[in-house]
Write a structure and sequence with these properties.
mainly alpha, 154 residues, 7 helices
């Protein structure tokens, strides 16, 4: 036996506010917007997760991130800039530098921190760190130590 497909035509389509079990009572266009927001939030979550996992990898950048997110580099850059008003690379470097600051506070050496945070060159790391925080990594550590000493004296 062959299968039959029945096509129904309806003149009641314009607003399309049908209901079925488990459906919300919202009009379809609102539900679609919420789905879109949730898809964006899911995408952002994947981006944050990727950066958190890969910030220490010096080779990680836009090319690798785009491949891991199954999109073109151009799409990644456009979509990322739309959300954060900065490039993916700028964001990745900011994360790396914040992580570096946390590691320096714990007493790790500047060169170790540089490599652990995805920088192949400690002097380039120091330049980036200073441009972000206004002090070199060494000065950053010294200032933290001075503040800690002041607190123990008081």
């Amino acid at each position: 036996g062959g299968r039959r497909v029945q096509v129904c035509h309806s003149d009641q389509m314009p607003g399309f506010e049908g209901s079925w079990p488990g459906a919300s009572n919202q009009p379809l266009h609102i539900a679609q917007k919420e789905k879109h927001i949730s898809q964006e939030q899911q995408w952002l979550g994947r981006v944050f997760q990727l950066v958190e996992k890969r910030y220490a990898d010096a080779d990680c950048g836009t090319t690798i991130a785009a491949k891991l997110l199954f999109m073109s580099e151009r799409s990644l850059q456009r979509r990322f800039k739309l959300h954060f008003q900065q490039t993916f690379t700028e964001y990745l470097n900011d994360v790396r530098l914040v992580k570096a600051g946390q590691m320096l506070v714990k007493g790790q050496k500047v060169s170790e921190v540089a490599f652990c945070c995805g920088f192949n060159d400690p002097s380039y790391f120091s330049q980036r760190f200073k441009s972000k925080f206004g002090v070199s990594p060494t000065q950053f550590v010294e200032e933290r130590e001075e503040k800690a000493e002041e607190m123990t004296v008081l």
